[in-house]
Specification:
The chain is α+β, with helices and mostly antiparallel strands. It has 43 helices and 33 strands. The strands form eight sheets. Strands 16, 17, 22, 26, 28, 29, 30, 31, 32 and 33 form a ten-stranded mixed sheet that branches. Strands 1, 2, 3, 4, 5, 6, 7 and 8 form an eight-stranded antiparallel sheet that branches. A hairpin with a 6-residue loop joins β18 and β19. Keywords: Hydrolase, Protease, Thiol protease, Ubl conjugation pathway. It catalyses: Thiol-dependent hydrolysis of ester, thioester, amide, peptide and isopeptide bonds formed by the C-terminal Gly of ubiquitin (a 76-residue protein attached to proteins as an intracellular targeting signal).
Length: about 1250
């Protein structure tokens, strides 16, 4: 037993003892998702297990959660000669197991019952280094360490799908899906169980020793001399002989197949006519040859196709796999009869190794193995404390309502093991757990929630609904507005103790400092929401007169601001601004643009301030604002809003994958849609150069639902301004925007805020996830995992003040971790709420996906596709493209296909030099030959949306950015990529075009070299001096020649012997060089001909034009940089450049396209169907304020204030004094106007 653990030991992290799972302050933990892992929804509450426990339960037919074996018992399977309900002994089956960089398949068979178990393991290659690994094991285990997988059942394939996949070659019974629940890990296992291939009657025939002895006796009597050497041992040799037949067949070439004569002595005795049906089932061809009443025919095997899987493995479900399966079952019969040369080797150890763990010896003999505590934690007796705590932490996330039981079971297991350190950990966990409330309505031993409830005027315990608590919160603010900060903290504390997503989301959204309309009305004492703006202004003014301090005053002003925003009333907003100025509460940081007195060109669209590393979000928001269907959904949200009923949320399936969502996602999505509507209205009506998107809007896009609902927040009043921004950026000189006109397009009509305003926020840390494609020509090299290095970013002032220091910092790596503002953006006390680290490294395509997903989750579908069940709405109909991925084996004529629905198509820049957008798309859509897998494949577009997004994939496998230019056409013709029947002239011509393209690329590659092909010239010289070279040993040639020349020399005998006179032609070196020049001339001529032929055909394919509408650009490195967007206004015939708060124009389309096509900056292209461009996109004009009366138009005096967004100026400042706003004699209220 280990010695007593010293909590004071410097070698141990004692904070891990006192922190419940998920509450430690650790480095950021990424949540990497897969399609299968997305089924791990919070309300499912399905326990997982350590892989060793998982294998134990599998082999003993007793999964704790998965009901596979229960279903099998109810099915009463009788397809096997042996019973299956026993501990399985698994052995490797045939040649069906293999491993690739992103998958592992282990095919096995039970030695006793002959059922087949196939383990299909997979992971995301892009996150391969984030998989669980035992090297992370340490004590005590921290929340950001994941040493072992924790496998959770996420569902079965339906009976209908099982029936569709059930065949003679692969009689599938069950297909169960399991995923690792560790947040960063993408490991998943699909378990497939299938019936024995040999039916009961097969086994009975093979083992019918009495029948074999009887046949042997009869044969001896009929042909005594022929069977003189036969022995009684033959009665046990039918399985041995069948194994030999199958072995020879599997190892034979098509030209070397051996037939089996029916007159063969052993065959006639061991099998004979009674077993002919076995060979028919094996698909042997029978020949009957009657000679004098005796059948002297043969059975001829059907030779299977060679293995076609990865690394030469046999593909499951093929005839070869079927033969291997039968042979494996025959070998099991041989082993059980004791006839094998040596005992079988079980594959349990290999399976456990693939699952990243080791075997627990003699676990079946341990009486504790099936006790409830070990089942619930998903571990086995005698496992290490690290394994137990790892499983405990994973189950904590999976079973939130059973955490009390988890803690008790942890203590019981620690007691079983008698390990002091584990016992100390378990007791500390129990003590901490008892002191903290886990959910509303449960025990509150430390009284924290009780205090929060009392503060809001409610009596403990917390059995209140979310609406009741919110109403109490509003009344508290109305009674004691000075306590608003504390009240929000109490509301957030109550929210954090809940495990109900919708309950928690409702409270967190209400705790935001940007008040809801109901909260604002309650604070101001308004009984109804729809009141004249004068009434709201008067009421607020009266409240302000009675204010007892600045805290109260600010709450009343915030409430009036909220009323103005939610009611979209410019006059009320003006009144609020004047009251804010009169009371000395103008936001200085937000009014700099107005104070600077810069003129605003109202003919230009409104810019967006960068609120902290959001230039990529700003670019997307500006673009989406110009897409009419999106704008219609957002500004008329109530027309399509999804009802927040359980039935509606459960029935809503998102996208082409029909993904389900939970209530928390729906709540956040609706809040996002409402925030986006507020921003869109500001973009329509603002009279400033730029407005500021809300932090809540940014968080809804950039943070996961889990983070928004479960992560704590810092008090906004207690953090510096920089704490509101995402994590720091890599330390490097900020890539300045071009100052030389030759570097970028010349701009006119500039209308911007000062550059210094957002200079420290211009470059954010982003991470572009490479779209990995097996045959992407730019990624043929083997991929190696790269460690993601975060480097501290110096702000602009620091960079200017000390460039040398910044230079040094750029070479030094630092861990960066910062508190990120959550969507609700509220405040909390330090004791109640801790900070959280959030990874903000998202690229523009991911953010676009997040926006689209949020909007889809916020609206109800308009229709459902009858064939696919896909739910359609305006968003899918506007953006989603349907593609078909075709794959064909070399030896087959029919393509297999898979249809997918995507929000963009991908273009790959050339690995070297510029290329056209057509060429870049061709790397995605054109035919690709996979020599190793013996496959050809291509992709085609089945249906096009009216608005098409093209992602230029600049991420490369080694963590670098492909900055090669892509020539962007104003009109993109998509005919060449459209789907066509394989027997059509269109497709046949496309195949010819693929061949032409390949040949053109090959010719360009050869001709593009500055010098002649040295390897080719060396080969000619070697031909000339071959005899001398051989006599001299060829040392020089061995050093100089590239590998492919050596390979040519090694393969002369591939097509037959070399003719004697082949190497005896007498060329001089000069003649050889002349021959090379002639060849290059021929290649030049051929290139011109090929390009002309291809161009002529493609010129005729221009019936599907799409016009360029917007281009999102990125300057910088893969992991950092700056985004901006170009958007074309078709109505005004002008291109506009949106760079955060700056908006500039250029009317020269050719110049814009030239600039975009000669750099590696364009990243995301937005095309619109040319004939529909005016229907789907436009650039909204600002809504000019209406003319007001002379009294309203009175000039202001004093300084010009702005609101919190900096987008509205206050005129008429003198009228904003308290005495003028509300006149005690009942005079009419003052008039306001927007400039």
């Amino acid at each position: 037993m280990a010695g007593k653990h010293d909590l004071r030991s410097q070698d141990q992290d004692t904070s891990s003892y006192a922190a419940l799972p998920g509450t430690e302050q650790t480095d950021f933990v990424p949540h990497n998702m897969t399609t299968m892992k997305s089924h791990l929804v919070p309300d499912r509450e399905v326990a997982g297990s350590h892989p060793s426990r998982w294998v134990y339960e599998l082999t003993n037919n007793d999964f704790t959660v998965c009901d596979m074996f229960e279903r099998a018992r109810n099915a009463k399977l009788d397809c096997t000669y042996y019973t299956w309900d026993h501990p399985h002994k698994l052995v490797i089956n045939g040649n069906q197991s293999f491993q690739t960089p992103s998958s592992r398949v282990l095919s096995s068979i039970c030695l006793d019952c002959h059922f087949h178990f196939v383990f299909k393991m997979a992971w995301d290659e892009a996150h391969a280094d984030a998989r669980c690994h035992s090297s992370q094991a340490r004590w005590p285990l921290r929340d950001n360490q994941f040493p072992w997988h924790h496998l959770v059942w996420v569902g079965s394939v339906s009976d209908a799908d099982i029936l569709d996949n059930h065949s003679k070659y692969y009689p599938l019974l069950a297909r169960e899906h399991f995923v690792c629940s560790a947040p960063p890990c993408t490991f998943q296992v699909t378990l497939e169980v299938s019936e024995p291939r040999m039916h009961t009657w097969w086994v009975q025939l093979l083992l019918d020793r009495d029948a074999i002895r009887e046949q042997l006796k009869l044969s001896r009597e009929q042909e005594p001399s022929r069977y003189e050497g036969a022995t009684d041992d033959w009665a046990d040799q039918a399985p041995l002989n069948l194994n030999t037949y199958l072995k020879n067949l599997l190892e034979s070439d098509p030209d070397d197949v051996r037939s089996i004569s029916k007159r063969n002595k052993r065959f006639a005795v061991l099998f004979g006519p009674r077993c002919f049906s076995i060979f028919h089932q094996l698909e042997f061809s029978e020949q009957v040859l009657d000679r004098n009443g005796v059948d002297e025919g043969v059975f001829t095997p059907n030779v299977p196709a060679p293995p076609g899987g990865p690394s030469g493995a046999t593909e499951l479900g093929t005839y070869r796999a079927y033969l291997e399966d039968v042979r494996a079952e025959v070998q099991c019969l041989i082993h059980k009869a004791g006839q094998g040369p040596e005992g079988p080797t079980l594959c349990t150890s290999a399976l456990l190794s693939d699952l990243g763990c080791s075997e627990v010896v003699d676990v079946s003999e341990n009486p504790l193995v099936n006790t409830e505590r070990y089942k619930m934690l998903g571990v086995l007796p005698t496992q290490s404390r690290e394994v137990i705590v790892n499983a405990y932490k994973r189950q904590w996330d999976l079973l939130p309502t059973r955490r009390r039981t988890l803690v008790d079971n942890l203590m019981a297991i620690a007691n079983d093991i008698g390990e002091d350190q584990l016992s100390d950990y378990a007791m500390t966990q129990s003590s901490v757990f008892d002191s903290q409330l886990q959910r509303q309505g449960t025990s509150d031993d430390d009284g924290v929630v009780s205090q929060a409830l009392n503060f809001l005027g409610l009596q403990p315990p917390n059995n209140y609904s979310a609406d009741s608590i919110i109403e109490a919160f509003r009344l508290k603010l109305a009674r004691d507005p000075a306590d608003a900060v504390t009240a929000r903290s109490m509301l957030m504390l109550i929210a954090r103790t809940s495990t109900d997503d919708s309950y928690q989301a409702a409270l967190l959204m209400e705790s935001d400092s940007k008040m809801s309309l109901d909260t604002a009305a309650t604070i101001l004492g308004l009984d109804v929401l729809d009141v004249p703006w004068q009434t709201a202004a008067e009421t607020a003014s009266k409240k302000l007169e009675r204010s007892k301090g600045p805290e109260e005053t600010e709450v009343y002003l915030d409430a009036l601001d909220a009323m103005a925003v939610h009611t979209d009333s410019p006059t009320l907003k003006q009144a609020a601004l004047e009251l804010r100025q009169a009371n000395g509460f103008l936001g200085s940081s937000d009014s700099r643009g107005a104070a600077a007195g810069q003129p605003v060109d109202l003919a230009l669209p409104v810019g967006l301030h960068n609120i902290g590393n959001t230039c990529y979000l700003n670019s997307l928001l500006q673009y989406l604002f110009t897409v009419k269907p999106i704008r219609d959904i957002v500004l008329n949200y109530e027309d399509s809003r999804l009802d927040l009923t359980d039935e509606s949320i459960k029935a809503r399936l998102l996208g082409g994958n029909k993904m389900q969502m939970d209530r928390g996602e729906a709540v956040v999505a609706q809040a996002f849609a409402q925030e986006l509507a507020t921003l869109f209205r500001n973009l329509q009506s603002s009279d400033q150069a730029a407005t500021r998107p809300s932090q809540r809007l940014a968080n809804a896009v950039l943070l996961s639902t889990h983070t928004l609902l479960h992560s704590p927040k810092q008090p906004a009043a207690e953090q510096p301004a920089t704490a509101l921004q995402p994590p720091p950026l890599p330390a490097r000189p900020s890539p300045a925007l071009p100052t030389n006109p030759s570097q970028d397009v010349e701009m006119t009509s500039s209308a911007s805020v000062p550059e210094s305003m957002d200079a420290d926020r211009s470059y954010e840390k982003v991470e572009t996830t490479a779209i990995e494609r097996e045959t992407n020509p730019t990624e043929l090299a083997a991929k190696e995992p790269q460690q993601d290095v975060d480097i501290q970013m110096a702000d602009v002032e620091q960079a200017v003040a000390g460039a040398s220091a910044a230079g040094r910092a750029s070479e030094t790596t630092h861990e960066t971790s910062t508190a990120a503002e959550q969507m609700s953006g509220g405040v909390a006390t330090d004791d109640a709420v801790d900070s959280v680290s959030v990874d903000q490294k998202q690229d523009v395509e991911e953010v676009m996906g997040s926006i689209i997903n949020r909007l889809q989750a916020a609206i109800r579908p308009s229709s459902i596709d009858g064939k696919t069940g896909i739910q359609l709405e305006k968003i899918m109909e506007t953006f989603f493209v349907t593609t078909v991925n075709y794959t064909k084996k070399f030896d087959e004529n029919i393509y297999q296909h898979e249809i997918s629905f995507d929000r963009s198509i991908t273009a790959f820049p050339a690995p070297d030099g510029p290329c056209s957008l057509y060429d870049a798309l061709g790397r995605n859509f054109d035919q690709q030959i996979l020599e190793e897998s013996k496959l050809s494949r291509y992709t085609a577009i089945k249906t096009l949306p009216p608005v098409l997004h093209v992602l230029i994939q600049r991420s490369q496998s080694m963590g670098s950015k492909n900055g090669n230019p892509v020539v962007i056409p104003e009109i993109l013709y998509l005919d060449r990529y459209m789907d066509a029947p394989h027997d059509s002239p269109v497709f046949r011509r496309r195949v010819e075009d693929w061949a032409l393209n390949d040949r053109i690329a090959d010719l360009k590659s050869q001709l593009g070299k500055a010098d002649p092909d040295l390897s080719y010239m060396d080969f000619l010289d070697a031909c000339t001096n071959g005899t001398q070279g051989r006599n001299e040993g060829g040392s020089s040639g061995d050093q100089e020649s590239p590998p492919r020349v050596a390979a040519m020399g090694d393969n002369w005998d591939f097509d037959g012997p070399v003719e004697d006179d082949f190497l005896l032609e007498d060329y001089s070196s000069v003649e050889a060089r002349g021959t090379h020049a002639a060849i290059r001339g021929m290649m030049d001529k051929e290139l011109v001909q090929r390009e002309k032929a291809l161009e002529q055909h493609l010129d005729s394919m221009k019936s599907i034009p799409y016009r360029l509408h917007a281009v999102i650009c990125h300057r910088g490195h893969l992991m950092s940089g700056h985004y901006w967007v170009w958007i074309c206004d078709f109505e005004d015939r002008v291109w506009r450049w949106y760079n955060d708060a700056d908006v500039k124009e250029n009317r020269d389309t050719a110049e814009v396209l030239q600039t975009l096509s000669t750099s590696g900056e364009p990243y995301f292209l937005c095309y619109v169907r040319d004939e529909d461009k005016h229907e789907y996109v436009d650039v909204p004009k600002r809504q000019r304020p209406t003319e007001l009366s002379p009294e309203e138009a009175a000039p202001p005096s004093g300084p010009t204030p702005t609101d919190a967004d900096g987008d509205v100026k206050v005129l008429d400042a003198e009228q904003s004094t308290r005495g003028d706003v509300v006149d005690g004699d009942g005079e009419s209220p003052p008039q306001y106007r927007i400039e």
